[in-house]
Design a protein that fits this description.
The chain is α+β, with helices and mostly antiparallel strands. It has 2 domains: 2-36 and 141-326, no CATH class; 49-130. It contains 15 helices and 5 strands. The chain has helices at residues 2-25, 30-35, 60-68, 105-111, 124-139, 143-164, 166-171, 176-185, 196-216, 219-222, 230-252, 257-261, 272-302, 306-316, 318-326, and strands at residues 49-50, 54-55, 74-76, 79-85, 90-97. Strands 1, 2, 3, 4 and 5 form a 5-stranded antiparallel beta sheet that branches. Helix 9 packs across helix 15, helix 11 packs across helix 13 (272-302) and helix 13 (272-302) runs antiparallel to helix 14 (306-316).
Amino acid sequence: MRLHRKKCLLFFFSFLMICSQIVAAQNKNLDQVSAEESVIPASKIENPLSLPSFTSTRTGVEEADEINRNEEKIEFSQITVKPELKNDNFRAIKITERNFDFSGSAVKELKKLPVQMPIPSLDLENEAKDEETASLKKEGFNWRAAFNQSFMFLGVQHGYAILGQKKTRQALKGNFWGDYVDSVKSLRGWSDGGKFFTNYIAHPMQGSLTGFIYVQNSPQARRQQFGSSGDYWRSRMKVMLWTTAWSAQFEIGPLSQASIGNVGWNGKQTWEDIVITPTVGTAMLITEDAIDRYFIKSIERRTNNFYIKIFSRMLFNPTRLFANILRFKEPWYRDRPTAR
């Protein structure tokens, strides 16, 4: 019963912490909350394209006609061309664009202008995407925050084990390094005799949580949403590598169950948790990504109720919830890229 009381207290304080976040945000609607979320804005063109001036080869009569048409605007497709006379020999043409679709009828209309002008060949969407990618690469992975959040989670796990498990407290006695080496040497086999829930639910949840620590500190991984994109799957493979390293440290590293709890002494130092945590954990993370994109978003589109929205986010993405808490964000916080 002693251990059960500690579990209840842990759950109670976690519940109070989440409720305090909800009370603090109850006067907001989810749109206001979402406005604070990290999103990747759609690319925008700050200034209209200004083409260089060029020499006019027209006659004086044509120039006089041009002066009379000085303020005319020629609108076609989604492009507006405004001729402006600069002096007797030079003029500039400004193009105010909405989406820079220089194709089809738009190109034909440009070719009908009295003075030939270069037809821009622009792939603005790809250019904006390249600039965005370069900016994200320049920002780089936030190693400091990732390690801070990881060690905070590690401290919670070991703290709970020390307070709640008598065998862990007993293992703190004796020679640290000698006992640690003996514990790691006992690593062998597959099954550690643990419960199914512990090995195949709790440990994968641990792997998913640590995976979200990587995602929320990687600009490139954070902007990806579930789908067939190669960028998404490459980022999640990096997540699995990160989680594999973290799981190995937790099981047999210097600050692990082997060093602090000396679990190898009890014959429970096996490969099961080291393998299951990152693999099934990454699959769980990907599942939460898919649920967030297709199920949770569909709920949010169907209701304006603030509480339904935030509880759906927390209920169906539990490991992301705790990863958010580790970075001191609201449990329902999201890093969602805006649609292009």
